[in-house]
Please model this.
Amino acid sequence: MEFSVSGSQEKDDHTGLTRNAFFKATGLAVLGILSGCSGRSTDTYPASENYHTSAFSKSEGTEETVLDLSSNINPWGPAPVALSAMKEQLYRNVSLSGINRYPDFMSLNIRASAAKLNRVSPLNIVPICGISEAVNILSDAYLDEGDEVITTDPAFFLMEQKALLQKASVVKVPLMKDHRTDLDAIIKRISKKTKLIYLMNPHNPCGTIIKDNELENFMTKLAAVNLLRKTKVIAVLDQAYGDYVVDPDYGKTLTGYISFNPMVVLRTASFAYGMAGLRCGYAIARRDIAAEMDGSLLYYINSALNSDAISRITPGHKGWKHPEGNINRLAESGMIAALDHGQDHIRKVRTKNRESLEWLYNELELSGIDFIPSQSNFLLIDLGKRTGVEIKKKLGTMDISVRSGDEFHAGYSNFIRVSIGTKDQMAVFIQALREVLQ
Model:
């Protein structure tokens, strides 16, 4: 059986509710819980003085040292205050809500912290286990057979994959010649079947951004399309790497959009926050959309709201592609500390990343190697007539891991994508790149 939030009236065999009605009912229940939440204490945590991150990592299962420049990992790690908070949670007495207890399935404290940081209401926040889970939630909440999703080309692979699993079609819009998102072309491709538009900002793998005035213009046009066609096409802004952006025309007008526009903004703690191994983040959305996302997420949590309808839901119910989980206690404690007290560290990471990136720019220019200027923590390097597959393989023999451009799109087969790390890491990389390009 297929379900759809948008128009499907088929009933769930267990609850007797349509999926649409279930999501809305669950979302309303979530709104009620959040509306009744009082403030919470914002305890400070002692900074860890002993934290150190190596420039290199060990290959999994071996003692081999590898320079990993393939995964966009933050080499400076989490904020010390986040590490201290997680350590406190790990060693807390079991009688004091230690890790022997289940996490708060509503993640109320994350909602409160993310809302405060972004100057929105907790009702606008949906905690997520990384961007991947957000894509799953949105796809389950809004896509049905025959619907359409619009993405850039290239885009995060899961955006397409999940749409196809929902039996929706994917419309891919090529980037412009300057490797930036073609917003006008995307508007022209909207049809009556379009439900979601995915925009990566910054774009991966190119590192280009959509500036505030461009986003304003796009959302104005999208609102006009929705009004004219009486549709609810949602723009999903993936800001996984947004904390690295230094362009002054980025991210200033976000709060105003969220309250009045069909938009979802995705944030993750995987990159600038340095907590990729913990899988946590949050979405910011208009209240009705946030409620529907919560409804989709909570569909998987048996007896989550202690209601008769939810208590009859069986985990793994047919028709669902993935079982959703909760943000675990360690991730929650680290993320709350980082959101509340770790923003100085995020600014330091952004500064260090930019210093390493500009150092690499200079070295590449000295070597006559072209690249696409980036606002993120990775760089797409033009290899000329050499292929990314060849150079990736040669760098691999030198224990340096990068991504070949054709892993993202055939049009980038003569590129490699390199994660930005410390200056020591970049020095090792540029020396190796010069050797393999000779």
